[in-house]
Design brief:
The chain is α/β, with parallel strands linked by helices and 489 residues long. Helix content is 48%, strand content 19%. The strands form three sheets. The protein has a nine-stranded mixed beta sheet, sandwiched between helices. The protein has a six-stranded parallel beta sheet with strand order 14-13-12-15-16-17, sandwiched between helices. It has a two-stranded antiparallel sheet with strand order 2-3. α15 links the parallel β16 and β17. It binds 6-O-phosphono-alpha-D-glucopyranose (G6P). 6-O-phosphono-alpha-D-glucopyranose (G6P) binds next to loops.
Amino acid sequence: FRMGGSRGMKQRLLVVANRLPVSAVRRGEDSWSLEISAGGLVSALLGVKDVDAKWIGWAGVNVPDEVGQRALTRALAEKRCIPVFLDEEIVHQYYNGYCNNILWPLFHYLGLPQEDRLATTRSFQSQFDAYKRANQMFADVVSQHYQEGDVVWCHDYHLMFLPKCLKEYNSKMKVGWFLHTPFPSSEIHRTLPSRSELLRSVLAADLVGFHTYDYARHFVSACTRILGLEGTPEGVEDQGKLTRVAAFPIGIDSERFKRALDHPTVKERIKELKQRFEGRKVMLGVDRLDMIKGIPQKILAFEKFLEENPLWRDKVVLLQIAVPTRTDVPEYQKLTSQVHEIVGRINGRFGTLTAVPIHHLDRSLDFYGLCALYAVTDVALVTSLRDGMNLVSYEFVACQGEKKGVLILSEFAGAAQSLGAGALLVNPWNITEVAASICYALEMSSDEREKRHRHNYAHVTTHTAQDWAETFVSELNDTVVEAQLRTRQ
Ligand code: G6P
């Protein structure tokens, strides 16, 4: 791993993402309690050697008063985090509106919003304006903290306008941008009214990264077809300036999961779960309650499986953890009631006085609880309609020591590219196929399970989140060096 900073000094990295990896709760006028959420990105960056990383992002709370803002800034500084304060109106237009109602569904092939189609032109424009304003606010905070030699790594679809704002502030800044969602076919991207402006802003970055080669290819095609630029094997070229475009598949901190399995709390919970579901095979789904996750389709496939396989009815249980998310967006509210309705119907239909086939939870689990659940699972169902990568599939594999459970995985999740040989790949829209795969998975021979698991486990434990972050940062440093060399020649 090459360092970009001066000799002996750690490379300073500013990580900019919409959301900081903390949950902040206000305890008083000037006091906050913070909890760091140890997600993939956090452990990835903690694991990168010789890098001194700071986070810049929104703390997820509205803090209208200066006293509160100052106190939160102080508390966050201890966690190496720097807040961007967004007021309610901008959160509504930028986060709920442009990010989650327009870009998110579009990038997952669900199209632009269908309702009030005629009215959208106006609201679309105001949401896009808010998006740009919000991105500028992130850029302002970055520029206040930027020091020469820093590398700035922008994350995700919330911040596609940021590379341009940063380069306008300082053209020498090393800027990388990574997309955590799919980048769709250029035919989908071209339906977006602000398609060109967004592409151009992203191209201001020195390095642009995606989870898979396909997403990178779609992005390059969008630049060639929509902007008329030249795509090269290295990336996209515009008037002699090359923006490197490449695939950097993310992973997990697999050691953290392995360590958790040895923890007494996890062992205790595993014992409890085994007792609770004795005599039944455990199937598991863990998803944010999002339309891209295909939860209704998954549950309908499970219903079809129960319908067609009466002998399995009292021998299997589906545990579906559906973590509430973006609850202010109407589409997500509708999805919650839809899922509840289907689960209720199936439990009414196949339940008995002592057992129900589906346990559906509208909440998240703590880390140890989740590890224990992964460990006792016989079949995991990851059936997203589209998904950038999907790390639940990786986490499940990491927690399956001796058990060698089966992973049923959507071919539309980025993870299908890496775990495809070990998992049972399915088209989540094809409920008959998913139902048949459930049956196949439950009845799979232990030899086949072992072979498949070995493949997945080797991948998950050797392609970690730390490797991902190191490769991206190292490549970002190189890109800038190359660019400087070119100008010197
Ligand atoms: C996806 C996005 C992330 C986002 C996460 C949770 O994984 O790629 O950028 O943080 O969903 O969504 P939320 O809207 O709650 O931040």
